[in-house]
Amino acid sequence: MGRRETTHMKGEYEGFSLATSLYYGFEVDDIIAAYRSAGVYVEYFEDELDFIAWHQQGGLDRVRRRNKLVYTFAINGTGPGRRSFVPAYCAREQIPTVNSDAYTCAIGRHKFHCNRLLGAFGLPVPRSWSYDARSGWYRGEAPPDGLRVIGKATYEDGSIGLTEATIGPFDQQLQAALGEVSLALRQPLTVQEFIAGDEIEVPVFELDGYHAPGPVVLTNQGKRFGETIISYDASWNDTTEYASASALASHTADAAIRAAVDVATALGHHGFARVDFRVGEDGRPLVIDTAAHPHLTKNSSYTFLFAELGFSFQEMMLTLAACGAKRAGII
Known about the structure:
This protein is α+β, with helices and mostly antiparallel strands. It folds into three domains: 18-98, no CATH class; 127-193; 199-327, ATP-grasp fold, B domain (D-amino Acid Aminotransferase, Chain A, domain 1, 2-Layer Sandwich), CATH 3.30.470. The protein has helices at 25-36, 48-56, 59-62, 85-92, 102-107, 111-120, 172-185, 232-237, 250-267, 301-308, 313-327; strands at residues 128-132, 136-137, 148-153, 167-169, 189-193, 199-206, 210-211, 216-220, 223-224, 240-243, 272-279, 285-291.
């Protein structure tokens, strides 16, 4: 659902486009082609309301295929919980999906709640606070002065709102900058302790249990992250690249795999999910984000990892369908 070039985004933010969370048209076409070339029948909808109208008018019943699955990979609008819309509708109508359920999609898109929840489960997360320019710090708790922090949009992905101005040693000047972004995005910011080190993504999929074949190291122009971030501009221009986990210490890679499986288990991810980490000075990976709808373009950590394992983009997308089919009892 959704193409950057044609989707009319609802509730756009000043200075930041929600389209950064959508796929380019050619990326959508890559996914459709991967399925159709394998003999899978595909119906594509630009907007979730188009899909619901089609279903209510009997469109699904008219598809003369025995096994039917729904896959949603983007959603329109703003605010918390919107990625739960299609999974919740499909659950009500008893339509099998390849995605996580409505609850998991919702909790993963509230960065502050997810951070605190995973921390309560004993999983490795950075210290985090919640700041809303309209109401201040949650429970009056703010980072200590001088601690290097990063402010992130609590409800959004695609690095929306994330610039160099939202990173730095905490002081009144940085708080003012965070307040400006909070007002522009009409939401609280999740303010995390900044971890200077490698940024890694760990794909996790559910197929007779959870599997995390290995982590992938993020790079920008061939350089590992360290002090840098995936800013809004970098996300928009899709400049992130990937490197093998051989660049990591073995204990770091193993810890990230274990933590990613624990996160997926705790949150109840289905199908494909992804857990993102920053690696501290001690080599310990800390969970900075989770994705119930991970990016699945040809330039993604998922595609990079599957290629390392000897699988094509088409085989990766068919694995995703198999995950949904297995959970639905189709196979």
